[in-house]
Here is the input.
Amino acid sequence: MSCSLIENDVIKSIIQNVKIILNTPKGSDIHRPDFGSDLWLLLDQPINSLIEGQIYSEIYQSLEEFEPRADILSISILKNSDNPKISIQLQVKDTSEVINVWI
Here is the structure.
C-alpha cells in the first residue's frame, strides 16, 4: 500500500467525521450525549453578525473537541441563498495538507 493511499483515506475520514460532527445534534447519541453540535439551531435563523459569530464558535468548539486530526484555518459562510453554505478550511496535522469541507 502506498503512502498516498493512506493519506487519502485519512483525508476522507476527516471530511466524513467533520460532516458527522456538525450534522449530529448534541444529545441525539445516547451513548455520547456531548457528541455533535448545536449548529442546526443556528442555521434556521436569519444570519446576522451575532448568529454568524455563534456559528463560528459552535464549529470551532465542536471540531476542537471531536476532530483532533485537523486544525481549523478558516470558516466562511455563504449567505446568498435560503440555505446558507459553510466552507471550513482545515489543515491535516500529520501531513500539513489543506482540505476544504462544505456543510
